[in-house]
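Sequence and fold:
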Amino acid sequence: MAANDAKRERGENELVFLALGGLGEVGMNCYLYGLGKGGNRRWMMVDLGITFPEGEDDPGVDVILPDLKFIEANLRQLSGLVLTHGHEDHIGAVIELWPRLGNVPVFATPFTAALLRAKLADYGGRLKIPITEIPMGGRFQVGPFDCEMVTMAH
C-alpha cells in the first residue's frame, strides 16, 4: 500500500467543508475548509460577511452576522482568514468578529485590503488586524492550504 493510500485510509488528508453562513442564502458568506483528522484538523476560513434583514421578521435588526461558535471552540486549529473580495457580504463582519478569532492573519488582494483598512479607519483605528496583501495571481499558504488569488468576474 502506498504512503498516500495509508494516509487516506487513516483520514489524515480528509478535506471537510463547513458553512457558517452564506449557503442557501444571499449574504453572510463565511466558510471553513478543514484538512486532517478530527482534533488535528487545520482550518482555513474564507470570508466573514454580513447579511441584511428582509421584511418584517427581523424588526430592529440592522445586520445579521455568522455564528462562529464552532470555530471559537477550535481556535488553535484556525490558520487564517482569506477574503475573496470587498463586498459587505464577504468582509462586512470582519471588524465585529475578527477579535473573536484569536488574532489570526487575514489575507486579501490589495483592493480588498484597502477597503478593509478604510472600514478600520472609520472604526477609529482601535483594532489592529494583521492583513497580508496578496497580488492577483499570487500564491500563498494558509496552514496546510496552498492558495492562489484568481482573477474573475463576480
In short: The first helix runs from residue 3 to 10. Helices lie at 3-10, 69-72, 88-91, 94-97, 110-122.
